[in-house]
Amino acid sequence: MIRNVARSFSHRPGALVLGLVACGCAAPSGEDAGPSSGPPRPNIILMMSDDQGWGDVEYPQQLAPGDVFPGHSEVKTPELRAMAAAGLQFHRMYSHGSNCSPTRSSFVTGRSPRRNHVDMAYNDGLRNLELTIAELAQTQGYMTGHFGKWHLGNLNRTPEPDADDLARCGGRCFGRSGGDFYSAPWHHGYERAWASPQALPTFEPMRIDPAGPLPSEGNHIGAHYWTGHEQHIDIDSPTLAGDASAILVRETTRFIDDAVAADRPFFAVVWFHPPHSPHRLDQATLDEFYSSEEQAEMNDYEKAYYSGITAMDKEIGRLRAHLRTLGIEDDTLVAFTSDNGLSGSVRLDDRDEAKAGLRGFKGSIWEGGVRVPGIVEWPGRIPPGETSTPMITSDYLPTLLDIWDVDLPDSRPLDGESMSEVLFGDRSALRLGRLRFDDCDDPVPERAAGEPEDCDSAGRGRGGRGLMRLGGGRSILDDRYKLISVTSGREWELFDLLEDPREQTPVATNADVDSKPQEIQEIFTSLLDEITTWYEVDTAASREGADYDTRIAAADGVDLLGDVGDETVPGDFSAARRTSADRPELVVERQFATLGEDLVVESGGAPAAYDGGNSPPGATVPAGTVVHSYLLHFAPTATGDLNDVEITFDDPILGVAASSESLAASDFLAFANPEFGRSPDRGTLAGESDADGWEILADGATIVIDLAAGADGVDQLRILTEAALQRAQ
What angle do CA 535, 537, 540 make, to 5 degrees? Predict the structure, then answer.
């Protein structure tokens, strides 16, 4: 395991770090216990709203020293107010993207959207070789679940809505998912899911008309809640009726109950729909929290908008109360934020208040687009208070690694850093690094010479709809200053966020910086040099796949699929699929995958030779083992045998699955659920030929494979190797 300060994060000096012990989701704590004596693997609930502006809460926040926003005058969020009082409130919390998908990608990977390739909504899915926060949680024994909006890839292979759906909903369906970019929560470390592909209505989420007939009777919005591959909740199910936030919290509490019953810590990600459109009026919530006089002051749009936020707030309270009922509140870390700032499409009478006067909206990297509410609560462990130290959504992953006292298991660069010192100790501690942003929001009509092409695919499949861009904006900020360009680096402005948090007057621009005081010139130059190197060198290399390590040392005579820089994994490995060359394929399937159950395979990793005439004795890779999985696939058009196909891995081989039965049992390790065909078509020992077989050499990391091609069936082996990070005991 590697801790690389320059490329990832480090323990801060004086940080309070928790050590690992045996799992227990409700371990008791002493009255005098400090943060370091708490459970090393606390239960974790990470919540995120959708398009909630920094000012869309009722509790006070500090824009800058001496500049306090008292809280929104109309929106009611009493539970978030209570959570902010009980936990640590971040006055400067940032989303790492200015719209939905990029921020969510940073949340789960600890890496900027530019690095992980999810630049914009609907332009890509989360890549196979990205290491996610849920996969890391599984290595620590957590039961993992995702509830709500996903938006990091499609949840099904078939595009939805289909033609019948479109006819039923008159072209107003909200599906826009399926087909390309299939990359679902269950491919990235989540054991349980109740996930929608994107935002759904805040009330009666399956219906076009919330008061209309059943969805199956032509009233379907065009999307589903998916629970697994090709598994979704029936659109007429009564479990999908009512408030969208209540649906998600109900499923989350069921998940928590199951984890507690299993005596396992839980890791739950809850991504709410409010206040993203479509806004739907929840009259019962409005009547519960707003007087008739208050309602009379609102327009119809505001009634729907505010009722959605308040209903979400109410459900956050129900979730926190459930922890108290179970007696596990002191062993549970709960966090809340938003995926980006206020949408510019809202029709509120006073839009400015919902973002506290900050400049810009969702879709921009001005403060109004990326500065969001932020609270982290862990009773008895994180002292209540507030901080102006900036935090960003990419910080979640390295912070949890710090709490678990686990190093990042490879050298991929992270853009987030651990906030443990701020959480548990010094509320005025400075960040080790600066925050760096980019987006696809430079609507120039033509690309200039040298203009980057990264954003050109944004909005693909939607006819643009305002998302197609050439080039983009970028910015960098520290504890005080922010340098920003919204013209793909053609012009730059420097702002002092302590004196001017609303970004009204730059202290310098690229046109006049030479006339400014020396200190300002140095700050300008330092920030510009860093963001330029980060954008043009560091993350450019990431986009080409430099961060991904297949853990394959050598592979002769084999075509690598899912290789460095290539996120593509074939969707068909059936007998019908053929390759024109007489070469096998080696597919990089999953990395850092934790086995939930014992896996029976044909051989372990002990050096030996096996073939049809020398049957392997069988072996078991035990539950809890963290593995890298690879699939060797050989089905050429020409009949012929291949001898001595040699592959050397960086890690010890743990097991080889070669029969149709063991391959089918381990297919959960495949990425994006490819088609494997009928089980009898698969396997290397199916024909019981002495020409089919493998040998594990003395180093324990090299396998030599003999393949006998035939007109029927495919030769396949699934090879499991040991990951650097193993499950905590």
Answer: 70
